[in-house]
Design goal:
The chain has one domain: Chorismate lyase, CATH 3.40.1410.10. Helix content is 24%, strand content 33%. The longest helix has 9 residues.
Length: 187
Amino acid sequence: MPTQSLLLTREPTWRENRPGLRHTLPESVASWTFETGSLTRRLRGHYGTAVKVKMLYHRWLTPFLSERKLLNQPEHRYCLTREVMLHADGVPLILARTILPEATIRCAHRNLSHLGTRPLGEVIFSYPDLERRELQVARLKPADWSQAALEWGAIQAPVWGRRTVYAIMQQPLLVNEFFMPGALAIA
């Protein structure tokens, strides 16, 4: 079993959201990266109820170093890690990795730890005090993905993604979303 991720072979190199970053990204990638609402809602606006969540990984583990730093977690603190694929009729749309510290799960009354195949966005965007704290982007080469992720996502070329630190009742969570061609094709 993997120690930190079923999707990734290594921690991605993330770029901070600085002025001008948007203009360095392909237009379709920028559109998804800077989407302020729920990506699930946007996908459903195009694909309707065909959008489903396939659970890939759901386990307590130690996050990557940069994830621990963003979440202000000590080195050996376990967080709930959830990796999923959003798809429509089997077409991969988004591979996602969510890191949930225990304190965040407690403050959300455990709603976040028992999502099953329910999209995270449906839950977190229902919190009136949801706060977006930080946004970063990365471009991953096929070698950055596990063999399983390459197959699930039908990945054959570099993939762009974003990671966002959100806070619910001042408690952070980290959401990584990687945009497959099926999502990028949506205007």
